[in-house]
Amino acid sequence: MSGELLILILVVVTAIAFDFTNGFHDTGNAMATSIATGALKPKAAVTISAVLNLVGAFLSVEVAATITKDVLKIQTDSGDLVAGLNPQTAMMIIFAGLVGGILWNLLTWLLGLPSSSSHALFGGLIGAGLAGIGFSGVNWGGIMSKIIVPAFMSPVIACAIAAIGTWCVYRLTRRVASKRRETGFRWGQIGTASLVSLAHGTGDAQKTMGVIALALIAHGSLTTAGIEENGLPVWIIVVCGLAIALGTYLGGWRIIRTLGKGLVEIDSPQGMAAEASSAAIILTSSSMGMALSTTHVATGSILGSGVGRPGAAVRWGVAGRMASAWLITIPAAGSVGALCFFLEHLIGGLPGALVVFGLLVAAATYMYVHSRRQKVDASNVNADWDEGASPRRSDSAAAAN
Amino acid sequence: MSIDFIEIGLAALRVLGLGLLFGAGLPALFALGMKLHAAGAGVDEDGATARRNPFAAAGAYALYAVVIAAVIAGVLFVTRQSLQHYFGLTLFGV
Question: Hey, are the CB atoms on B19 and A277 less than 8 Å from each other?
Fold first, then answer.
């Protein structure tokens, strides 16, 4: 087995791992509000979301083979590597970028902070790209208009729409018996949350598929002409769909908890308005060819549902922490991406890739072990939010561990 | 690096407009349907029963149908590429 093939396998495995982290990072965007209000039991919610994400991944026939074009100048319009770019360098950039994205996803998960997986991946790629080909290899204009500006605008727009929706909903159902209202809106929540999960599946699994396709193109075992004719190899679609669905099912409970309980104490009318706002924005923007971060939109919507309800309290401190995390996502993931690239480049070839992979596994294991000290799972995801304290786990769950 | 602020601004307005229509409008319609449903069943806010109102009930069902239709439209929209690929159906100007 040649060294190049082994490196390719490492890259593909890492991409799949990224897809997995993408899955559990984003479960909350669709399901946190439904879990928080009890519209769906935690396990039921993640199961539905996982299935819909899987379905969505399979339904996305559109090929995102030019995924890096928004942030880097390493692909042509058809998806091929640009002339003059060494395929080995491209492979190293992709690998380092993925590692940066994964580590940031894991860190924010550990801290229970919702953050954009797209930004983590793009940030990693940008950092690795800077390290690998320098300033001119980065698509600064694209980053600005497709990533940075939407990142600021989408939570604000989401907040506004959800606030107005929530206000309308409460006003209109002022005189409705509260039990009726609760039940009715819980049904509404299930519908809108499912729509968000489906939309997420079609959009996000694509990113990883595009990255894997690019790695294969760089290795030479796939051509853009081949993709044009036959579509993406089915195994890529299957594997990415399964990875994101599995991640979704395992559920980033820490993040679900922050979104569902940490920002706003949510009731079902708010939950429905928030998810409806998210669904509408995600679908509208994707129809216009803009890919927005589901995390930014969902968080903005949840905040808006708190603002729109008379008398609701919003924990702006938590929101502020999240905003800070969002601001440093790209630089942070980028730094890790750049470091990984330098390390790979320094050691060179297969040993370089193996070392970086080893570091990735070590860091991931460390963070996972650390997370077990303050475990958040289906049993305590809805426990009362106590600033600074870790949620009490139910006795049966604690006894089982 | 040139940023086309006008284009970005227009795109934002479009998302805001359509987002308001569907993202706030549909929950509002749903809420209205709920209100009519409660009136139709003759249950007021304290849960006491009063006279049933069949027109209100009909209005409620109509509104619920609109909301469900919108959700289905959303699903069809999300899957429009696949629908074209697998079934040759062209919706929403694929």
Answer: yes
